[in-house]
Write a structure and sequence with these properties.
six-stranded mixed β-sheet, Rossmann fold, elongated, ABC transporter transmembrane region fold, four-stranded antiparallel β-sheet
Length: 605
Amino acid sequence: MVGAIGTNIGAALLDAFSVALLIPFLNTLFDRPALDIKAGWVSSLLHATVGQLMVSGDKMSSLRNVIFVVMIVVIAKNVLVWVSGRFGAELQEYVTRDLRNSVYKHLARLPLTYFTRTKSGQIISRVLNDTFETRLVLTQIVTQSLQAAALVVSTIAFLFDISWRLTLMALVIVPILSLVLQPLLKKLRRGNRRRGNQHGEMASVLQETVSGVRLVKSFGAEEFEERRFTNASDTYARTTVRLTKLSFLAPPVTEVIGMLIAVTLLWVGAHQVLVDRSLTGADLITFLVFVLRLLQPLKQLTAVRATAQSSLASAERLFDILDTPSEQERDRGTIRVDGFHRDVRFDNVGFSYEGESGRRETPVLRDVSFTAARGDVIALVGASGAGKTTLVDLIPRFYEPTAGSIRIDGVDTQSMTLGSLRSLIGIVSQDTVLFHDSVRNNIAYGMPNRYSDAEIEAAARAANAHAFITALPEGYSTMLGERGTRLSGGQRQRIAIARALLLDPPILILDEATSALDTESERLVQAAIDRLLEGRTVFVIAHRLSTVRHATQILVLDKGRIIESGTHDELRAQQGAYSRLYDMQFRSATRVDVVPDVTPVPSFS
C-alpha cells in the first residue's frame, strides 16, 4: 500500500511538472524571456530545474534542453506508473485472497440456522463471485483512482499558483458533478445489490440441477429445469444491461460539463491576457493544458464511483456473512470436558426454530425429559416431523435449547466449550457425506496426520470396509468422486462407520444407516454398526422399528413430546402408540414381501 501510494504520487507530480515545462518552451518559442511567469513557487521550481539550461541568445539550444528534460521526466513518470501497477496488482490480489479466505473461514463456523435459511447457491455466489467483484474497487482505488486523485491534487496546486481566480472557476465542476451524478450512483448501488442476489438465484438453480440430476432425468424434467435457469439467467442479464446503461452515463456527463467549464475559462483567460495583462500567453496556454489534462483523471474518478457501486454492493453481501456471529462468538461455554463418565440428561427441554423475521416459530420440542446412562442405546421413534432429528441435534449444540437444559455428567452443555463438547460425539447419518479425496483421508477426515495407516486400516476392517477398499484401483489412495459417487450406498455407509470408529467417541448419534440398503449391504453395515455401538452411549433415530427391539430405552415422540418410553417388550405390552406403529410396519412388510424374508432381524445388540 505504501509503495503504491508513493509511486502514484511521484508519477502524478512528475506528470504535472512535465506540463509546467511548457512555460519556458512557449516563452522561448514566442520570443519572450524563457522564465517569464507570473506564478510564485512554480517560477521558483522552473528556475531551480531548467534555469541553468536556458542558453542566452541561443533559442534552439534552450528548446533542445527543455525537450531533453521533458523526455527524462516522462520516462521517470512512466517507470513509476509501472512500479505502482505492480504494487497495486499485488495489493488487490492478496487483499482479495485474504477477504475470500476470511469469508470462507467465518462461513464454516456459522451456526446451522444460517445454512437452513440461506440457499447454497447464494452462499457459493458470495464466496466466489462477490469476492471477485469486490476486488474491482481495490483495483480502481489503488491503480487508477489513487493515481487520478494524486494527479488532480498536483495539477490543482500548479493551477492555483498560475491563477487562483481561474482555478476557482475551474473547480466549480466538482460540486456540479457530485450533484448531477449522486442520484445515478444511488441507483447503481441498489441495482448492483439486486443483481448480486439474482446471480445467487441463478447459481442456486444450477447447483440444485447438478446435485439432483438423477431426479431431473427420471422425471423427464429437463425442460422444466431449463425454463427455471433461463428465467433466472434472463432476469440477471436484463438487470446487468440496465445497470450498464446507467454506468455509461457518467463519463459523457462529466466530459460535457468539463468542456463547458473549459470554454468559459478560455474566454475569461483571454480577457486577462489581452485586457488586464495579469497573465502571459504562455501562462494561459499552460493553464488550459493543465485544465484539459485535469478532465481525464476527473472522468476516471467519476467512472470509479460508478464502477465502485458494483463492488460496494458485493462487499455488503460479503459483510452480511462476516457480520453474522459465528458459533464460537456465540459460545459462552467455559468448561472443558475431557471425557464422558455417567449419563446424558434432558431436563424439560424445549426448542423452536427461528424464522426469517427473527421470531421463534411454533415449538418443535416440548418438555422433553429422560436420562441416557453410559452404555445405553436410546431409540427415538415416531412419525416424520415428530422432532427426532431436532432432539439429537441439540446434543452437540447444532442448535441451542430454548427451554430447559441438557446435562452431560451433571454439566450443562451450554457451559461446556463447543470444541470439547463435540469431541465427545460422533455422528453417522443415513445421508453419508464423502469428499472428493482419497479413501484414507475420508476415513481420517479433518485429521489426516493424526492417525497412522495401521489405525485407519484397523478401523476399516472393523467397519467391514477393508475388503472392498483394497479392491479399488489404488486401494486406500483411491480418489473418490464428489460425494463418493464411485461407491455404492453400502460402501459409503461403511466408510462413514470406519470414520466414527477411528474417532472413537463415547457418545454416538446414529440416523439409521441401513434403511436404504439391499439385504447383503445391510448385513455388512449392521455387523459394523454392532461393533461401533460397543461400550458407547448411543442415540438412534429409528425408521424401521424391527432394528431397535434390543434398545435399552425406546422414546416415542409425537408433536415434539415424549408420549411413551420403555423397552420393546414393555411398549408392546402397553398396546399404545409404539405397538400400533410396530404392527402397521409389520403388516405393511408382510403385504409387500412376495418371498418371506428369512434373514436374521438386525438389532443393536
